[in-house]
Amino acid sequence: MAVTLETDLSRVLGAKTAKAMAESLDLRTVRDLLRHYPRRYARRGEIARLDDLQVGDRVTVLAQVRKVTSRRMRNRPGTLTEVTVGDGAGQMQLVFFNRKFGKLEEGSWGLFAGTVGEYRNSKQFAHPDFHLITGDDDEDWARALIPIYPASKDVSSWVIQKSVKLLLDATGGFGFVEDPLPEDLRSRHGLLSLAAALLDVHRPTSAEDVERAQDRLKWDEALTLQLVLAARRRAAALEPGTARPRRSGGLLDAVDAALPFSLTEGQREVGEELAAELSRDQPMHRLLQGEVGSGKTVVALRAMAQVVDAGGQAALLAPTEVLAAQHARSISAMLGPLARAGELDGDPAGTKVVLLTGSLKAAPRRAARAAVADGSAGIVVGTHALLQQGVEFADLGLVVVDEQHRFGVEQRDALRAKGERPPHVLVMTATPIPRTVAMTVYGDLETSVLRQLPSGRGGVASSVVPVADKPTWLDRAWERLREEVAAGRQAYVVCPRIGDDETGDDETDAPDDADGAPGDAKGGDDDRRPPLAVLDVARALDEGALAGLRLAVLHGRMTPEAKEATMRAFAAREVDVLVATTVVEVGVDVPNATVMVVMDADRFGVSQLHQLRGRVARGRHRGLCLLVTEARETTSTGQRLAAVAGTSDGFELARLDLETRREGDVLGAAQSGRRSGIRMLSLLEDEELIAAARTEATALLATDRGLADHPGLAMEVAALATDERAEYLEKA
């Protein structure tokens, strides 16, 4: 049978197995299967003994099934199956929820792989991957390294292992695989051929085999991504834009004169950098990242003012209506009469600042769109509504994207496309990004960094409140909040859920456990309770610990008018405590707020906690952030929260975030998993490889023929890239 990388798996594995792989793992072709790499390897002779296991270890054990029992769970629908296994030296529990087993019977021997947890002082696996040993396994069991694959409930690791072996037998090896990497590139970096690397990664005989194979396969992933980004940079460099040089005596000078504070040295340096790039014909493509509260918005406003002075328009794209409204409000306040050109009290030398969101009523929406279309609105602030058909700009000169991680590349480009000529682009993020991530995710952008905070900020002290270990600390937390309010200041209480709705309205991006295990959850049918909800917590606080204070709630299900009214009341000090979801995560600026209490802090990611903490101490008073959690201090979750509390360096926390989250979480939904080919590359460990791939990708596309002389590489890139990315490669 002639097999290629594009051959459907049904021709090799049969319809039933192929269907299961397609539906549960999205593996459809031979290429998909061969690129589905082992997560790790079980070593014969090094199988862990049950009596040696430690909680938190990721292990594979060889054990015999001693007992199988099933029962209905008390606290939620479904069945709990408990399996006792032993290896002669000890025994442990395996716990499965709503799963049927067939051959998992007493007396069976099998391999069980998972992360060791603990429940009622006994070690256990929750949902371990397993394979029962039969006579058919003698050859595989004799191998020194047994591959353990990412699997699903319908397709186990061992089914994948057997499928790879079947493919290997059917083709007489992987000789049919053509190598996409140029031979001179492989030689320069000492890389295996693709066929050899695939054989060694799936059927290794030694750890050295695995290491060499992984190095080669990481190159495939890194080069694919860097080719896409290099193509975007090259395409952008070829597009003529419009220079927007600085003009004295205009809006920018008025902004500088109106600022109630002096710019930091970092703001001045980045400002000069942007001013120089805006003055060129070649469109600017720059990422501005910085610490929470480092003043990125002021830098962006000065760039927007320069573009308006040069006759163009600037659009600021924000991820939420709350943030968009606040940007419009703060920009208008900073510009004063200069933001109201054409109005009775406006300065004719100024411009209009227009807010355009999806919730605008028909008449104001028409008026806003008309001001954008005729050019009288020089600064346009909005949400995704800016991307809609019918929003036309007279002369779009600058696109500012706030909180880039909330938007995809295609959304950024949709707004760029609204200019007659490509506008300048400034992308901002308050989530500091390690260099490896910046090279991989934002590699089509030049990068500027703001680390310095404005003078006069009080700073934030952070503490973990471990209620399971120290229950009285929560009472003290509420006392501290009351003390701050008594001193004339305000507070936030943040919860991960809205409440009064059990359809699952979590507003958190807390990272999943890397192995799909329950992490620090207790396991069994005593699973973690639902996340705390704003409406429930606000009610309890109003009747209890914070009785007598003025409380208000803020969450994503409120109408835009209600959200705006609540934020205005909080900013005007008419509310003492704002109980909210993560809608306050970015951009909300109330200098009088000094306390933030994050409930169920373990449900949030590291970067998100840092963002939330940045909402307090934005004035001269010192701030306090209290991370409330039921996680034990000794657990990995407790230690993660302690690390967040222990440093205010966002770049250090970004690295911690990268260590504790899946690569796909860091890359974002549009840039993770199969769509980008990121399966093996580690952004944390492979910085040198990523940098080398960037150099090679740039060189490959710098030639007149681009990838035309490397059809195998072009096909591989097209297969691993998204349609949108492949389109950019074709253009380049």
TrEMBL record:
DNA repair recorded as keyword: yes
Biological processes annotated in GO: DNA repair
Record's compositionally biased regions (Acidic residues): 501-515
Record-level Gene Ontology MF annotations: ATP binding; DNA binding; DNA helicase activity; hydrolase activity
UniProt xrefs under SUPFAM superfamilies: Nucleic acid-binding proteins, P-loop containing nucleoside triphosphate hydrolases
InterPro entries: DEAD/DEAH_box_helicase_dom, Helicase_ATP-bd, Helicase_C-like, NA-bd_OB-fold, P-loop_NTPase, RecG/Mfd, RecG_dom3_C, RecG_wedge
Record-annotated Helicase ATP-binding domain positions: 277-450
Region Disordered, annotated ranges: 496-530
Domain Helicase C-terminal: 473-664
Pfam families: DEAD, Helicase_C, RecG_dom3_C, RecG_wedge
SMART domains on file: DEXDc, HELICc
Protein name (database record): Probable DNA 3'-5' helicase RecG
